[in-house]
Amino acid sequence: MTTALVECVPNFSEGRRLDVVEKIVQAVQGVRGVVLLDYSSDADHNRSVLTFVGPPQEVADAAYAAIAKAAELIDLDQQRGEHPRIGATDVVPFIPISGITTAECVELAKGLGERVAKDLNIPVYLYEKAASAPERENLANLRKGEYEGLKEEIKTNPARQPDYGSSELGTAGATVIGVRDFLVAYNVYLDTDNVEVAKEIGRSIRHLSGGLRYVKALGMEVEGKAQVSMNLTNYRKTPIFRVVEMIRREAARYGANITHSELIGMIPQQALFDAAVWYLQLDGFSEQQVLEYKIAQEQAVKTSFLDELADGAPTPGGGSAAAYAGAMAAGLVSMVAKLTLGKKKYAMHQDEMEDVITRAEKIRGELNAAVAQDADAYNDVMAAYRMPRSSDEQKSARDKAIETATLHAAEVPLSVMEKAITILLLAKKVVEKGNQNAITDGGTAAALAMSAVSGAGMNVRVNLSDLKDTHQVEALVERLRKLEEMAEEIKLEIKAILTHRGNLAKVVL
Predict the structure, then answer these.
(1) Nearest-angstrom CA–CA distance, 68 and 423
(2) Residue 219: helix, strand or coil by DSSP?
(3) Pick the catalytic residue: 83, 260, 408, 471?
(4) Residue 260 annotated to the active site
(5) Which of 13, 132, 179, 296 is at a distance of 20 to 30 A from 330, taking alpha carbons?
(6) Is 0.90 topped by the overall pTM?
(7) What is the pLDDT of residues 193-218, one digit of tens each?
(8) For residue range 435-487, what is the model confidence (pLDDT) as tens digits?
Protein backbone atom coordinates (compact mmCIF):
# COMPACT_ATOMS: atom_id res chain seq x y z
CA MET A 1 0.00 0.00 0.00
CA THR A 2 1.49 3.34 -1.04
CA THR A 3 0.18 6.74 -0.01
CA ALA A 4 0.61 9.34 -2.72
CA LEU A 5 2.58 12.39 -1.61
CA VAL A 6 2.73 15.64 -3.58
CA GLU A 7 4.70 18.82 -2.98
CA CYS A 8 3.33 22.22 -3.98
CA VAL A 9 5.41 25.43 -4.18
CA PRO A 10 3.07 28.32 -5.08
CA ASN A 11 4.44 31.84 -5.66
CA PHE A 12 2.39 34.87 -4.62
CA SER A 13 2.79 38.47 -5.78
CA GLU A 14 3.16 39.92 -2.29
CA GLY A 15 6.30 40.16 -0.20
CA ARG A 16 5.89 43.45 1.65
CA ARG A 17 2.61 43.17 3.54
CA LEU A 18 3.51 40.29 5.83
CA ASP A 19 0.05 40.24 7.40
CA VAL A 20 -1.32 39.31 3.97
CA VAL A 21 1.29 36.58 3.58
CA GLU A 22 0.37 35.18 7.01
CA LYS A 23 -3.29 34.94 6.00
CA ILE A 24 -2.33 32.99 2.88
CA VAL A 25 -0.18 30.70 5.03
CA GLN A 26 -3.10 30.17 7.42
CA ALA A 27 -5.34 29.23 4.48
CA VAL A 28 -2.91 26.40 3.66
CA GLN A 29 -2.55 25.29 7.28
CA GLY A 30 -6.31 25.08 7.60
CA VAL A 31 -6.51 22.12 5.20
CA ARG A 32 -6.44 18.72 6.83
CA GLY A 33 -3.56 16.43 5.85
CA VAL A 34 -1.28 19.17 4.53
CA VAL A 35 2.05 19.96 6.20
CA LEU A 36 3.63 23.38 5.60
CA LEU A 37 7.40 22.94 5.28
CA ASP A 38 8.60 26.48 4.58
CA TYR A 39 7.65 29.97 3.45
CA SER A 40 9.66 33.10 2.69
CA SER A 41 9.06 36.64 1.42
CA ASP A 42 11.17 39.14 -0.54
CA ALA A 43 10.25 42.83 -0.39
CA ASP A 44 12.18 43.91 -3.51
CA HIS A 45 10.75 41.11 -5.64
CA ASN A 46 7.44 41.70 -3.81
CA ARG A 47 6.94 37.98 -3.82
CA SER A 48 6.41 35.11 -1.38
CA VAL A 49 6.96 31.38 -1.84
CA LEU A 50 5.27 28.61 0.18
CA THR A 51 6.24 24.94 0.30
CA PHE A 52 3.79 22.30 1.55
CA VAL A 53 3.23 18.55 1.12
CA GLY A 54 0.46 16.03 1.59
CA PRO A 55 -1.90 13.67 -0.27
CA PRO A 56 -2.81 14.90 -3.79
CA GLN A 57 -6.39 16.12 -3.27
CA GLU A 58 -5.58 17.74 0.06
CA VAL A 59 -2.64 19.58 -1.50
CA ALA A 60 -4.87 20.75 -4.35
CA ASP A 61 -7.45 21.94 -1.81
CA ALA A 62 -4.75 23.86 0.09
CA ALA A 63 -3.54 25.44 -3.15
CA TYR A 64 -7.11 26.46 -3.99
CA ALA A 65 -7.60 27.99 -0.52
CA ALA A 66 -4.38 29.96 -0.90
CA ILE A 67 -5.32 31.17 -4.41
CA ALA A 68 -8.73 32.30 -3.14
CA LYS A 69 -7.19 34.17 -0.20
CA ALA A 70 -4.58 35.83 -2.43
CA ALA A 71 -7.29 36.93 -4.88
CA GLU A 72 -9.17 38.49 -1.99
CA LEU A 73 -6.17 40.39 -0.57
CA ILE A 74 -3.90 41.25 -3.54
CA ASP A 75 -4.80 43.87 -6.16
CA LEU A 76 -2.41 43.71 -9.12
CA ASP A 77 -3.46 47.17 -10.26
CA GLN A 78 -1.67 48.42 -7.13
CA GLN A 79 1.11 45.80 -6.87
CA ARG A 80 4.64 46.49 -8.13
CA GLY A 81 7.87 44.52 -7.74
CA GLU A 82 11.02 43.46 -9.52
CA HIS A 83 9.83 39.93 -10.26
CA PRO A 84 7.68 39.36 -13.39
CA ARG A 85 4.11 38.32 -12.60
CA ILE A 86 0.70 37.91 -14.17
CA GLY A 87 -1.31 36.96 -11.12
CA ALA A 88 -1.85 37.50 -7.41
CA THR A 89 -1.10 33.79 -7.26
CA ASP A 90 1.43 33.81 -10.04
CA VAL A 91 2.40 30.18 -10.42
CA VAL A 92 1.37 26.91 -8.73
CA PRO A 93 3.65 23.95 -9.48
CA PHE A 94 2.96 20.41 -8.28
CA ILE A 95 5.96 18.11 -7.73
CA PRO A 96 5.39 14.33 -7.44
CA ILE A 97 7.19 12.98 -4.36
CA SER A 98 6.05 9.38 -3.91
CA GLY A 99 3.23 7.04 -4.82
CA ILE A 100 2.02 9.22 -7.68
CA THR A 101 3.00 9.59 -11.33
CA THR A 102 3.67 12.74 -13.30
CA ALA A 103 0.58 11.99 -15.40
CA GLU A 104 -1.56 11.85 -12.24
CA CYS A 105 -0.12 15.17 -11.11
CA VAL A 106 -1.01 16.64 -14.50
CA GLU A 107 -4.63 15.61 -13.95
CA LEU A 108 -4.43 17.19 -10.49
CA ALA A 109 -3.20 20.45 -12.04
CA LYS A 110 -5.94 20.41 -14.65
CA GLY A 111 -8.60 19.78 -12.02
CA LEU A 112 -7.35 22.67 -9.92
CA GLY A 113 -7.16 24.93 -12.98
CA GLU A 114 -10.75 24.21 -13.93
CA ARG A 115 -11.92 24.79 -10.36
CA VAL A 116 -10.06 28.10 -9.99
CA ALA A 117 -11.42 29.40 -13.29
CA LYS A 118 -15.00 28.34 -12.55
CA ASP A 119 -15.31 29.26 -8.86
CA LEU A 120 -12.93 32.23 -8.58
CA ASN A 121 -13.27 33.63 -12.11
CA ILE A 122 -9.47 33.66 -12.55
CA PRO A 123 -8.08 32.71 -15.98
CA VAL A 124 -5.68 29.75 -15.75
CA TYR A 125 -2.78 28.68 -17.97
CA LEU A 126 -1.17 25.23 -17.79
CA TYR A 127 2.63 24.99 -18.01
CA GLU A 128 5.64 22.64 -18.02
CA LYS A 129 4.54 18.99 -17.98
CA ALA A 130 0.86 19.98 -17.88
CA ALA A 131 1.13 22.42 -20.80
CA SER A 132 -1.57 22.23 -23.46
CA ALA A 133 0.91 23.26 -26.19
CA PRO A 134 4.73 23.21 -26.52
CA GLU A 135 4.97 27.00 -26.51
CA ARG A 136 3.28 27.05 -23.10
CA GLU A 137 5.75 24.74 -21.40
CA ASN A 138 8.08 27.61 -20.56
CA LEU A 139 6.76 29.86 -17.79
CA ALA A 140 8.57 32.88 -19.25
CA ASN A 141 6.44 32.69 -22.40
CA LEU A 142 3.25 32.89 -20.35
CA ARG A 143 4.57 35.87 -18.35
CA LYS A 144 5.46 38.00 -21.39
CA GLY A 145 4.14 41.51 -20.96
CA GLU A 146 3.29 40.70 -17.34
CA TYR A 147 -0.13 41.50 -15.88
CA GLU A 148 -0.40 44.88 -17.60
CA GLY A 149 0.34 43.46 -21.06
CA LEU A 150 -1.78 40.34 -20.61
CA LYS A 151 -4.74 42.46 -19.52
CA GLU A 152 -5.10 43.72 -23.09
CA GLU A 153 -3.74 40.78 -25.10
CA ILE A 154 -5.98 38.19 -23.48
CA LYS A 155 -8.96 39.91 -25.06
CA THR A 156 -7.68 39.99 -28.65
CA ASN A 157 -4.75 37.59 -29.17
CA PRO A 158 -5.80 33.94 -29.70
CA ALA A 159 -2.32 32.81 -28.60
CA ARG A 160 -2.96 34.33 -25.16
CA GLN A 161 -6.31 32.67 -24.54
CA PRO A 162 -6.30 30.81 -21.18
CA ASP A 163 -6.69 27.06 -20.87
CA TYR A 164 -9.52 27.66 -18.42
CA GLY A 165 -11.68 30.69 -17.73
CA SER A 166 -12.72 33.87 -19.47
CA SER A 167 -10.61 36.17 -21.63
CA GLU A 168 -10.72 39.00 -19.15
CA LEU A 169 -8.50 39.80 -16.20
CA GLY A 170 -9.69 41.01 -12.84
CA THR A 171 -7.43 42.52 -10.19
CA ALA A 172 -6.21 39.02 -9.23
CA GLY A 173 -4.81 38.55 -12.75
CA ALA A 174 -4.24 35.06 -14.13
CA THR A 175 -2.68 32.01 -12.51
CA VAL A 176 -0.28 29.49 -14.07
CA ILE A 177 -0.64 25.90 -12.81
CA GLY A 178 1.49 22.92 -13.77
CA VAL A 179 3.78 20.04 -12.89
CA ARG A 180 7.56 20.15 -12.66
CA ASP A 181 10.57 18.54 -11.02
CA PHE A 182 12.23 19.96 -7.89
CA LEU A 183 14.03 23.24 -8.57
CA VAL A 184 16.34 25.55 -6.67
CA ALA A 185 15.42 29.25 -6.67
CA TYR A 186 18.72 31.10 -6.42
CA ASN A 187 19.81 34.73 -6.90
CA VAL A 188 23.30 36.23 -7.36
CA TYR A 189 24.09 39.92 -6.67
CA LEU A 190 26.78 41.96 -8.47
CA ASP A 191 28.81 44.99 -7.36
CA THR A 192 27.24 47.21 -10.00
CA ASP A 193 23.99 49.12 -10.30
CA ASN A 194 23.97 48.62 -14.07
CA VAL A 195 21.05 46.25 -14.51
CA GLU A 196 21.99 45.74 -18.17
CA VAL A 197 25.01 43.75 -16.99
CA ALA A 198 22.72 41.38 -15.06
CA LYS A 199 20.41 41.08 -18.06
CA GLU A 200 23.32 40.21 -20.37
CA ILE A 201 24.55 37.59 -17.91
CA GLY A 202 21.03 36.19 -17.61
CA ARG A 203 20.91 35.80 -21.38
CA SER A 204 24.30 34.12 -21.46
CA ILE A 205 23.56 31.48 -18.82
CA ARG A 206 19.92 30.56 -19.47
CA HIS A 207 19.27 27.49 -21.55
CA LEU A 208 16.84 29.10 -23.99
CA SER A 209 19.53 31.60 -25.03
CA GLY A 210 22.19 28.92 -25.55
CA GLY A 211 23.50 28.82 -21.97
CA LEU A 212 23.50 26.08 -19.35
CA ARG A 213 20.98 23.28 -19.47
CA TYR A 214 18.40 23.34 -16.65
CA VAL A 215 18.91 27.06 -15.98
CA LYS A 216 16.25 29.76 -16.26
CA ALA A 217 17.59 33.25 -15.61
CA LEU A 218 16.90 36.96 -15.94
CA GLY A 219 18.55 40.17 -14.80
CA MET A 220 16.95 42.81 -12.57
CA GLU A 221 17.74 45.55 -10.09
CA VAL A 222 17.29 44.77 -6.39
CA GLU A 223 18.36 47.00 -3.48
CA GLY A 224 20.19 49.26 -5.91
CA LYS A 225 22.33 46.42 -7.26
CA ALA A 226 22.19 44.25 -10.36
CA GLN A 227 20.85 40.78 -9.62
CA VAL A 228 20.84 37.59 -11.68
CA SER A 229 17.67 35.75 -10.63
CA MET A 230 17.48 32.04 -11.46
CA ASN A 231 15.54 28.82 -11.27
CA LEU A 232 17.81 25.75 -11.46
CA THR A 233 15.56 22.92 -12.60
CA ASN A 234 18.02 20.02 -12.14
CA TYR A 235 20.76 20.72 -9.58
CA ARG A 236 22.34 17.30 -10.15
CA LYS A 237 22.92 17.71 -13.89
CA THR A 238 23.69 21.43 -13.71
CA PRO A 239 25.09 21.96 -10.20
CA ILE A 240 24.98 25.32 -8.46
CA PHE A 241 28.77 25.78 -8.41
CA ARG A 242 28.93 25.51 -12.20
CA VAL A 243 26.27 28.21 -12.57
CA VAL A 244 28.03 30.52 -10.11
CA GLU A 245 31.38 30.13 -11.84
CA MET A 246 29.87 30.95 -15.22
CA ILE A 247 28.25 34.06 -13.76
CA ARG A 248 31.59 35.05 -12.23
CA ARG A 249 33.36 34.76 -15.60
CA GLU A 250 30.62 36.56 -17.50
CA ALA A 251 30.56 39.37 -14.92
CA ALA A 252 34.33 39.83 -15.29
CA ARG A 253 33.76 40.75 -18.94
CA TYR A 254 31.94 43.86 -17.73
CA GLY A 255 34.33 44.63 -14.88
CA ALA A 256 31.85 43.35 -12.28
CA ASN A 257 32.12 40.88 -9.42
CA ILE A 258 29.78 38.74 -7.34
CA THR A 259 29.10 40.25 -3.91
CA HIS A 260 26.73 37.64 -2.45
CA SER A 261 23.90 35.27 -3.29
CA GLU A 262 20.62 34.17 -1.73
CA LEU A 263 18.39 31.12 -1.65
CA ILE A 264 14.61 31.35 -1.97
CA GLY A 265 12.72 28.53 -0.30
CA MET A 266 14.31 25.15 0.28
CA ILE A 267 17.33 23.33 -1.14
CA PRO A 268 18.43 19.68 -0.97
CA GLN A 269 21.38 19.11 1.33
CA GLN A 270 23.21 17.29 -1.47
CA ALA A 271 23.31 20.47 -3.57
CA LEU A 272 25.23 22.26 -0.81
CA PHE A 273 27.56 19.32 -0.26
CA ASP A 274 28.33 19.21 -3.99
CA ALA A 275 29.23 22.91 -3.94
CA ALA A 276 31.44 22.54 -0.87
CA VAL A 277 33.26 19.54 -2.30
CA TRP A 278 33.89 21.29 -5.61
CA TYR A 279 35.09 24.61 -4.20
CA LEU A 280 37.28 22.99 -1.55
CA GLN A 281 38.52 20.33 -4.00
CA LEU A 282 37.85 17.62 -1.44
CA ASP A 283 38.69 14.07 -2.42
CA GLY A 284 36.64 11.19 -1.06
CA PHE A 285 34.45 13.46 1.05
CA SER A 286 31.73 11.95 3.25
CA GLU A 287 29.11 13.74 5.33
CA GLN A 288 30.44 11.64 8.23
CA GLN A 289 33.37 14.08 8.23
CA VAL A 290 31.05 16.95 9.16
CA LEU A 291 31.47 17.59 12.88
CA GLU A 292 27.85 18.37 13.72
CA TYR A 293 26.55 15.31 11.90
CA LYS A 294 29.07 13.04 13.58
CA ILE A 295 28.32 14.43 17.03
CA ALA A 296 24.59 14.01 16.48
CA GLN A 297 25.13 10.44 15.31
CA GLU A 298 27.27 9.57 18.31
CA GLN A 299 24.75 11.08 20.71
CA ALA A 300 21.95 8.67 19.87
CA VAL A 301 21.35 8.50 23.61
CA LYS A 302 21.90 11.89 25.18
CA THR A 303 22.64 11.05 28.82
CA SER A 304 22.60 14.66 30.00
CA PHE A 305 19.03 15.13 28.76
CA LEU A 306 17.89 11.85 30.31
CA ASP A 307 19.40 12.88 33.62
CA GLU A 308 17.59 16.24 33.45
CA LEU A 309 14.35 14.45 32.62
CA ALA A 310 14.64 12.31 35.76
CA ASP A 311 15.84 14.91 38.27
CA GLY A 312 12.42 15.89 39.64
CA ALA A 313 12.22 19.40 38.18
CA PRO A 314 9.09 20.28 36.15
CA THR A 315 11.23 20.97 33.08
CA PRO A 316 12.16 19.32 30.82
CA GLY A 317 8.90 17.41 30.89
CA GLY A 318 6.58 15.46 28.63
CA GLY A 319 6.56 18.03 25.84
CA SER A 320 10.35 18.03 25.66
CA ALA A 321 10.39 14.23 25.76
CA ALA A 322 7.93 14.12 22.85
CA ALA A 323 10.17 16.42 20.80
CA TYR A 324 13.18 14.24 21.68
CA ALA A 325 11.32 11.09 20.59
CA GLY A 326 10.63 12.79 17.27
CA ALA A 327 14.29 13.74 16.90
CA MET A 328 15.31 10.11 17.53
CA ALA A 329 12.77 9.00 14.92
CA ALA A 330 14.32 11.40 12.41
CA GLY A 331 17.77 10.02 13.20
CA LEU A 332 16.64 6.45 12.54
CA VAL A 333 15.04 7.49 9.25
CA SER A 334 18.37 9.02 8.17
CA MET A 335 20.20 5.88 9.22
CA VAL A 336 18.02 3.59 7.10
CA ALA A 337 18.29 5.92 4.10
CA LYS A 338 22.08 6.02 4.44
CA LEU A 339 22.23 2.22 4.67
CA THR A 340 20.33 2.16 1.36
CA LEU A 341 22.64 4.53 -0.54
CA GLY A 342 25.31 2.92 -2.66
CA LYS A 343 23.62 -0.49 -2.72
CA LYS A 344 23.18 -1.84 -6.24
CA LYS A 345 19.91 -3.52 -5.30
CA TYR A 346 18.40 -0.13 -4.42
CA ALA A 347 20.01 2.01 -7.12
CA MET A 348 16.61 3.07 -8.48
CA HIS A 349 15.83 4.71 -5.12
CA GLN A 350 19.13 6.60 -4.77
CA ASP A 351 17.64 10.05 -5.44
CA GLU A 352 14.69 9.43 -3.14
CA MET A 353 16.93 8.31 -0.28
CA GLU A 354 19.14 11.38 -0.68
CA ASP A 355 16.04 13.54 -0.46
CA VAL A 356 14.87 11.63 2.63
CA ILE A 357 18.19 12.29 4.36
CA THR A 358 18.00 16.01 3.57
CA ARG A 359 14.49 16.34 4.95
CA ALA A 360 15.02 14.10 7.99
CA GLU A 361 18.22 15.86 9.06
CA LYS A 362 16.60 19.28 8.83
CA ILE A 363 13.66 18.19 10.96
CA ARG A 364 15.94 16.36 13.40
CA GLY A 365 17.67 19.66 14.12
CA GLU A 366 14.34 21.45 14.52
CA LEU A 367 13.01 18.82 16.93
CA ASN A 368 16.22 18.91 18.95
CA ALA A 369 15.70 22.66 19.29
CA ALA A 370 12.07 22.08 20.30
CA VAL A 371 13.26 20.12 23.37
CA ALA A 372 14.45 23.39 24.91
CA GLN A 373 11.66 25.46 23.36
CA ASP A 374 8.99 23.40 25.10
CA ALA A 375 10.71 23.80 28.47
CA ASP A 376 11.11 27.54 27.89
CA ALA A 377 7.43 27.87 26.99
CA TYR A 378 6.39 26.19 30.26
CA ASN A 379 8.74 28.44 32.24
CA ASP A 380 7.19 31.51 30.55
CA VAL A 381 3.72 30.38 31.70
CA MET A 382 4.95 29.98 35.26
CA ALA A 383 6.59 33.42 35.12
CA ALA A 384 3.29 34.95 33.98
CA TYR A 385 1.45 33.37 36.91
CA ARG A 386 4.00 34.90 39.29
CA MET A 387 3.30 38.44 38.06
CA PRO A 388 1.89 40.88 40.66
CA ARG A 389 -1.90 41.31 40.91
CA SER A 390 -2.45 43.95 43.58
CA SER A 391 -4.29 46.40 41.32
CA ASP A 392 -6.82 46.03 38.51
CA GLU A 393 -4.15 47.20 36.06
CA GLN A 394 -1.70 44.54 37.29
CA LYS A 395 -4.40 41.87 37.17
CA SER A 396 -5.21 42.80 33.56
CA ALA A 397 -1.54 42.71 32.56
CA ARG A 398 -1.10 39.37 34.32
CA ASP A 399 -4.16 37.82 32.66
CA LYS A 400 -2.95 38.96 29.25
CA ALA A 401 0.54 37.60 29.86
CA ILE A 402 -0.86 34.23 31.03
CA GLU A 403 -3.07 33.95 27.93
CA THR A 404 -0.18 34.81 25.58
CA ALA A 405 2.28 32.44 27.28
CA THR A 406 -0.27 29.60 27.42
CA LEU A 407 -1.09 29.98 23.74
CA HIS A 408 2.63 29.76 22.92
CA ALA A 409 2.95 26.72 25.19
CA ALA A 410 0.26 25.04 23.07
CA GLU A 411 1.75 26.07 19.75
CA VAL A 412 5.20 24.57 20.47
CA PRO A 413 3.99 20.95 20.86
CA LEU A 414 1.56 21.48 17.96
CA SER A 415 4.59 22.30 15.80
CA VAL A 416 6.29 19.17 17.15
CA MET A 417 3.29 17.12 16.00
CA GLU A 418 3.53 18.55 12.47
CA LYS A 419 7.23 17.75 12.24
CA ALA A 420 6.70 14.26 13.67
CA ILE A 421 4.09 13.57 10.98
CA THR A 422 6.59 14.56 8.30
CA ILE A 423 9.02 12.07 9.87
CA LEU A 424 6.26 9.45 9.75
CA LEU A 425 5.90 10.04 6.02
CA LEU A 426 9.66 9.70 5.57
CA ALA A 427 9.68 6.56 7.74
CA LYS A 428 7.03 5.10 5.46
CA LYS A 429 9.28 5.78 2.48
CA VAL A 430 12.35 4.03 3.97
CA VAL A 431 10.23 1.11 5.18
CA GLU A 432 8.77 0.73 1.70
CA LYS A 433 11.87 1.35 -0.44
CA GLY A 434 14.89 1.33 1.88
CA ASN A 435 17.39 -1.38 2.72
CA GLN A 436 15.34 -4.41 3.77
CA ASN A 437 17.95 -5.39 6.34
CA ALA A 438 17.08 -2.20 8.24
CA ILE A 439 13.31 -2.36 7.80
CA THR A 440 12.64 -2.77 11.53
CA ASP A 441 14.76 0.32 12.20
CA GLY A 442 12.36 2.18 9.95
CA GLY A 443 9.48 0.67 11.91
CA THR A 444 11.07 1.82 15.16
CA ALA A 445 11.37 5.32 13.70
CA ALA A 446 7.63 5.24 12.96
CA ALA A 447 6.86 4.07 16.53
CA LEU A 448 8.94 6.90 18.00
CA ALA A 449 7.30 9.43 15.68
CA MET A 450 3.86 8.21 16.80
CA SER A 451 4.97 8.62 20.42
CA ALA A 452 6.01 12.18 19.60
CA VAL A 453 2.58 12.87 18.07
CA SER A 454 0.76 11.37 21.05
CA GLY A 455 2.88 13.02 23.74
CA ALA A 456 2.89 16.41 22.05
CA GLY A 457 -0.87 16.15 21.54
CA MET A 458 -1.46 15.69 25.27
CA ASN A 459 0.62 18.79 25.95
CA VAL A 460 -1.40 20.78 23.44
CA ARG A 461 -4.64 19.76 25.11
CA VAL A 462 -3.54 20.55 28.65
CA ASN A 463 -2.56 24.07 27.60
CA LEU A 464 -5.72 24.63 25.58
CA SER A 465 -7.80 23.83 28.66
CA ASP A 466 -6.42 27.00 30.29
CA LEU A 467 -7.09 29.36 27.38
CA LYS A 468 -10.03 31.76 27.58
CA ASP A 469 -10.26 32.63 23.86
CA THR A 470 -12.78 30.01 22.74
CA HIS A 471 -12.36 30.88 19.05
CA GLN A 472 -8.63 30.16 19.20
CA VAL A 473 -9.23 27.01 21.22
CA GLU A 474 -11.72 25.66 18.68
CA ALA A 475 -9.34 26.37 15.78
CA LEU A 476 -6.40 24.71 17.52
CA VAL A 477 -8.47 21.70 18.61
CA GLU A 478 -9.57 21.17 15.01
CA ARG A 479 -5.99 21.45 13.81
CA LEU A 480 -4.93 18.98 16.51
CA ARG A 481 -7.65 16.53 15.55
CA LYS A 482 -6.65 16.60 11.89
CA LEU A 483 -3.01 15.96 12.73
CA GLU A 484 -3.89 13.00 14.95
CA GLU A 485 -6.10 11.48 12.26
CA MET A 486 -3.38 11.91 9.65
CA ALA A 487 -0.83 10.24 11.94
CA GLU A 488 -3.13 7.26 12.52
CA GLU A 489 -3.66 6.79 8.78
CA ILE A 490 0.08 6.82 8.07
CA LYS A 491 0.73 4.46 10.99
CA LEU A 492 -1.68 1.88 9.55
CA GLU A 493 -0.04 2.14 6.12
CA ILE A 494 3.42 1.58 7.64
CA LYS A 495 2.08 -1.37 9.62
CA ALA A 496 0.78 -2.96 6.41
CA ILE A 497 4.10 -2.46 4.63
CA LEU A 498 6.06 -3.91 7.56
CA THR A 499 3.77 -6.91 7.70
CA HIS A 500 4.14 -7.58 3.98
CA ARG A 501 7.69 -6.50 3.12
CA GLY A 502 9.21 -7.40 6.47
CA ASN A 503 7.48 -10.79 6.42
CA LEU A 504 6.20 -10.13 9.92
CA ALA A 505 3.03 -11.87 11.04
CA LYS A 506 2.08 -9.07 13.41
CA VAL A 507 3.38 -5.55 13.77
CA VAL A 508 2.33 -3.23 16.55
CA LEU A 509 3.07 0.52 16.44
Answers:
(1) 30
(2) strand
(3) 83
(4) no
(5) 179
(6) no
(7) 999 999 999 999 999 899 999 999 99
(8) 999 999 999 999 999 999 999 999 999 989 888 888 888 989 999 999 999 99
